[in-house]
Structure prediction request, 1099 residues.
Amino acid sequence: MNKKHGAGDLTRRSVLLGTGVVATTAGCNLIGGSDPEPTSSGSGNGGSGVELTLALVPDPPGASEFYRAQMDLFEEANPGITVNVIENPADQQLNALELMFQQGEAPDVFRCQGTPALTRFAERGWTAPLDDLVTDEFTSRFAEGSLAPASSGLHYDGHLMSVPLVWGDWGPTALWMYNADILAEYGFDAPPATWSEMEEMARAITEEGNGQVFGLHPDRLDLMMYGSAPYGTLPNLDLTTGSPHLADDTLVELVEMFRRLQSEGVIIPGWEVEGASPAFSDFAAGRFAMYPSATWHVAEARKLAPDMNLKLAPIPVPDSGRRAYSPRSAAFQPIWSMSSESAHPEEALLLMDFLASIDFYRAYYEEFGSFTASQIAWEDQARENPDQAGILDVSAETLRTVPNPQLLAEGAEDFWAAITGDPELRAIDVAKDAVINDVDFRPLAEGIDQRVEELLVEAEADVPNIRDLLTFEDYDPLADWTRSQ
Amino acid sequence: MTAVPAQRTPSWRRRRRRAVLWGWLFLTPLVVLFTAFSLWPIVASWWYSFFAWDGVGPPEVWVGLGNFAEALQASSFWNAFWNSFVFSLGALLVEFPLALCFALLLNSVLLRGRNLYRLALFLPVVATTAVIGLVLAIMLAPVGGVVNEALLTLGIVDRPINFLGDPDIALPTLVGIDIWKGFGITLIYWLAAIQTVPKDLYEAARLDGAGARQQLVNVTLPVVMPIAVVIFLLTFQRSLNTFELVQAVTGGGPVFATDVLPTYIYRYAFDAEMAAPRYGFACAVGVLFGLFTLIITLMQSPALAGRLRRSAS
Amino acid sequence: MTIVSPSTTVRTDPTAPPPRPNRGRASGDRRRIRWWHLFLLPFCFLWVYPFLWMISASFKSRQEMLLGGLHLWPQDWTFDNFQRAWTIGRFGEYTGNTFTFAITALVITVVTASLAGYALSAKDLPGRKIVMGVLVAAMFIPHGYTIIPVFELVNALGLQNGLLGAALAQAAPGLVVPVLLYVGFFGGVPKELGEAARVDGAGYLRTFVSVMAPLAKPVTGTVVLMSFIGSWNAFFVPLVFTLGRPDLRTLGVGMYNFFGTDTTDWTGLAAGASISVIPIVILFLFLQRTFVEGIAGAVKS
Prediction:
């Protein structure tokens, strides 16, 4: 064959060349192996050098530099300790951690966010009890009583297993976020207080909005649901009776109202998909007037529309009067855990202490503007910011502590695993099904109740008193719940 | 025209033995890699599918066919299965032939700027899916979205179309987006296939007075057929494994209207909301999915099966 | 038709005028084909519009990207996004890794698939049916969830925390399509070509290396492109196989740094996506020619 210097030869040669170059520069990276030496740096850090690995999510995006700077502060304060940071994508942090544990190369401290995740990890014995951390000084960093094992959300099996970051007293607050300018334009000077006011206002605004402005977006319908019946975190169970009760009259009324508004085109179309375009950007664009939202939407909308007349209010209540408040079933959401397999538990505990320090909480708040678990670290500053003050006000008004059967009903773990392990039992999906597909909500809800009842009957085989465990007779949905006895 | 196969002399036998030996030597890397990284994991997942297992530690709770029975009884499984099937129908009925048409057009040396056209049609393939999800959500929005504004202005519709939010429209919309996103791949494969047709054949056909259509039917298609079968399979397989796009654009919503098997499996295997992921169940769904698609392919396309048999024999 | 040795292979220059016979008809074709531009130009513009918007978004402010509609020309140009993308997406650290990973996976794919494809194109190879059957059947198994067994295997081989393990895990499951493409291609190459080479005294290996592999360029170009794109954007495999070595991550993983638990840095992501698409576009333009030049003149009438 004739030697021709065509593109093909060039391709092959350059690929080979490229391979060669890359292979020589990065050659040893190819093989790897089990040698757990994350980085070469830091080894020259004095004789008694201890290396800790911290596996985190650089959240919010761009937080890498913040965390590195904070770790530098920690290293400064604790000579001899080096912290290697491993960052994982938010979606994959838990998977990555699980594999690291299976590999026997678990990080010393890791971000393990949320109750389901903490339960999963603690159950496998991967998290170390942090009881040594709990001193009077430590307790004083957080709201009074919030570290009680039964309600902190950070405990497992009676031991502190996690420290919090961006979640606290205000955490589960459901806000009614509204654009006061739009409301005023259509003749309303206050946000709706009741459901029928909400319906009336939404209709009026959509009708006059002429396809450009709509009255309502049901973004966090789930938050409205939680707050309208005595359910706690899992709305499938009525905690006053311990029985499944999604087909509750008030709840049916709520969902049916949204179904009505949807089928008549009152609700802004396009909300149905939790896709890439979030509610706050349509809100900031002035395309709709009001919506039930989670707290973090406030700052996001504000960033997009700095001059907007954004106001916050409590979520409207049923016309027949309030039946429940937004449920605070745990004081905190777990975030940081320490590995039970850490080779340097004492140093790792120091790091945990640092991550739960007032300084760190304040630094995080100042950097990202989000509330952190130690309210005293930032409350004065937040009071000066109208948006943030608004969140605190609404949460003080509408949040009430409820019993958390997931934390309290010991022995019912399998039942929870069965309930949370079935995505088809998620109440919000059933409600959205009714609203979007225009079908009756009650039969759907009754179907869910029936399946939960079946799971209960199954669970009774192992835990005969499970219904008692899930019943909190002293629970008054209109008051803060404290454990009697 | 063909050289008559040599007689079965001892030297023929020796040559043949050597060819077989060399053939298997050539196959060794594939067999090793494929067995280790594809077959073994698949077989392992069959094994896992008989357990109630969260994916950590050794699987212990044997549930037999329980996972399979549960999946087969779940309407959500069939919903996702059907949606996946719609995706492949779209890919096979629209993308596959359409890409061939474009490949034929863009293959013509007479068409100026064909390199640019090819690049243009290919670009969606390399566009980051997550960003595309946002772009399309903004473009297709019923309120303020450019597509609806255009349709309204032109008077084609009198109410904005809720492309992604209406459960009846979301799936076709998403299939359309999937075709758009993957079109370039099929196009490139078709172009490569057409390139394997020796140019002399066209010349010969032209000398015989064949027109463009006759050349296509008599020269191009017969020669590309073996590769066309591969492209068909590839398009089919890719459309069944649509995951990222669905996650990015609709997340399977509204209310599971665009849920596909890969998102369904992901939800059970890796959902962070679960205290105990159901890896075993996810494996069972994967196995069922694989089996069904295999059966359906073999049943519904006897022509394809025949092709495969012929090219495999 | 008679066979000529491939050494007489002549590449037709794609820009040269079409073959002499029927010159009149060819120029008629040329005129007729011009009409296609009327369709192709607007069609392709609409087709790439979302892509162009992605590029333009990387020069926009967050506000303009989310609320500013769909115009392509940014009102206020900003380059902050690229600066952020560089640090958040870790382009400086990860680009080298990504090349190592992608090229390793590519070499594995091309070598393994072309060898196997050539072997399997011999219809009389014993065991061929089984291998082909298994390959095709495996195509239908969704593999999103088979990561756990693969992970265990790589651990057992001691290849965790290295890009080779990742490249193997990336390349191996994707081998089916390239193998089948090569089978399809080599199966279509006239037997006589191989015979001719053998008459010249070439053995099995030589025939493959000097005759068959060069002929397969259109297929190889495609396989190279697809394999490269796959590993360039790969996310899960390089993440899972570099758990303990964040310094070995690739850009596909880095891109996910733009996503937080609740919020996303959309403009940074757009800038990151715009940067990371460049090598692929270059490769595409570079390989473009292999899609145009076929095995011209391999068989003469």
